[in-house]
Structure formats: C-alpha cells, structure tokens
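During the no-cost extension, the postdoctoral fellow (Dr. R.K.) reprocessed legacy sequence entries with the updated structure-token encoder. One reprocessed record is reproduced below for audit purposes.
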Amino acid sequence: MTENDVLVRINKRLLELSKIPRINQEGSIAKRLKEKGFSRRDFMKWAGAMSAFMALPSSFAPSIAKAAELSDRLPVIWLHMAECTGCSESLLRSDTPTIDSLIFDYISLEYHETLMAAAGHQAERNLHDAIKKYKNRYILMVEGAIPTGATEYYLTIGTEGHTGKQIAQNACENAAAIFSIGTCSSFGGIQAAHPNPSNSKALSVITSKQVINVPGCPPSEKNIVGTLLHFILFGTLPALDVYNRPKWAYGLRIHDLCERRGHFDAGEFVQSFGDEGAKQGFCLYKVGCKGPYTFNNCSRERFNSHTSWPIQAGHGCIGCSEPDFWDTMGPFEEPMADRLYNTPFGIGSDAVSDKIGVGILALTAVGIAAHAAIAAMKKGDNDE
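Re-encoded structure tokens follow.
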C-alpha cells in the first residue's frame, strides 16, 4: 500500500467521523486550544511533531490535526482499578498544559472517577448508561491491575458492590478498542509483585478481547494520546510488539537513544552516586541503569513538559515499562550483570521488541557487563 493509498484511507475514515455529531456541544477542541493561548500555527507544529513521533510521513500532519479535532466524536470510558492514579495525574495535572493534555481533557470522557463530579448511585448510572448508549463505539482505557481469584473482592467498587474484575469485563465486552494505561494495567505492576497477595493480573488476562498495552510508571502523555490518535486515524490497532505495545512508541530501547550512550561506549561510568563521573554526566549502568533492557521512548520524549527524565536527572532507568519489572529488574541501583531475566516465553526478548530474542537475556547482560569492564579498562590505559 502506497503513502497515497494510506492517506485516502485515512481521509475516508475522518470523513465518516466528521458526520458523527459532536458529543460535547460546548465549543470545540480548536476553540479550547485557542482559549489556552495556542495558535493554529502551534497546533500544526504539534501535528507535524506528532506525525514524526508516530513514525508517519510529514505529509500526514494535516490528517493528524484533523483527527485531533474530531477526537471529541468518540466517547471514552476510563476505569480505575488497583492503582495510584499516577497515570491520570501525569496526563491531566500539568501546571503548563500541553496540547496533548488539553486534547485529552476535552474529549468526551463519559466516565472517569478522578475527574467526574458525580458520585455514588449517579456515578454508577453514568457508567451503565455510557456502556449501553455507545455500545461498540466507545474507547475503553483502564488504569490499574485487577485482583482475581479468592481475593477478587479486595477491589470492590461503587454502591452496587461489584468487583473491579466484574466491572472491567463488562466494559471490555462492547468496547471498540481497549487500552491498558500504565504498567499496572498492562502487566500487573507493583500490585502483582511477588508474592502478589491480591492475585492481581493484567487487564489482558481477564478478557478475551484484544488489548493494547501502553506501559510506564507512568507512560508519557504522548504515548497515551498517540495511541488514541492512531485509532482515530485508522480505525484499527497499531502494529504491536510481543507484549502488545505499539511499536512506534516501544520499538527501541532506552539505551539506543540515551544522551549518555557515548559515555557507555567510551567506558565512562558513574561508580557511585555523587562521584566525579556523576557530575560529568557519565553512564549510569554500573549504578543500576536498566536502559539496555527496557523498551520505551523516554529518552526522546522526556517528562515534565519534555524538560527532563530520570537519567538526565541522575538516576538510572528502572525498567518500568517491562513485564514484572518489580521482580526482574531489582535491585534498582545494581547492574543486571549475569542475572537471568525471565520472560513469559522462558527466553529473552532483547534483540528487538517485536521478536523473541535468539538467546536468553542473561547472555546479553553478561555481554553488556563485559563491554563495560573492557571499555573502562581501555579508558584507564589511555588515561595513563
């Protein structure tokens, strides 16, 4: 399929969406952005950046802008399961709102426990009505792990006393698309860490429907909004890796685009926090950085209005977008070295994110550790 064929398909999809009445009748997304001080020029620059971010040609920018403007045509139901609400907070609680957060703030959120004014029976009714009214049309976003089995009742929500599992399964049944937002919903998160007393599971475990995972603790707002925009643009799910993460967001390791990568290759490492190497921005591998084993775009996207991210701030990546990272990536301030990193497949998946690796990641870890040692020795010899 050529680029022109894809654009024709997208424009057909957007034309169909434009015929759907706006759910939120109080203005429009374009008006909302203007009120917040964003010009049309700012909006188109954002659309261009978003097209690059989603690994699409620059010619797709006008279509992305149009998709963002039409995003208030699709109802969204956001469920909170066993979680800290950090994923919602990272997206919505900005002191300087971005275009991403404003767009998400304005879409038709039919149910969101943190944002809605309703409570008690009214809140329950809103959820039931939204599922019924927008059957097979709504986008379901779920934040948090889901207790199951004998401890399913640990998460009991609302006046009707339904468990989180019951609510999530019911909402999944008639959703047009399902997104697991954050590592807890995607993989179980800290709730599922050993010994997992609540028997918490990922959303994908408790439903037979296809689930797109958008992991991170928390994920960046662009990963959330970009996944939503992809569905609006194409009406289909994006290309996914072996953990059902969008490849355009989780296709590269943190290590691949890390600003400290040159120091790693040169054998320049922080040996302990606060040492001279730390002051000079050396590689954090020896103090536990899990960037070589973690697939995410934090090194490119960053956080806090794109100003910084953990490695820039001086602490290594802890691998928060990987399955079972609480168990497999710790201790967080020690290198992986020769520890075996188990995956659901029983072997590593370090080579590329969309294929099962050719060898166990333990061997990769040994190779990285060996490189770190050899590079450091070479540097020592050169310094003499």
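The radius of gyration is 22 Å. The chain is about 40% helix and 10% strand. The remaining legacy entries will be reprocessed before the final report is submitted.
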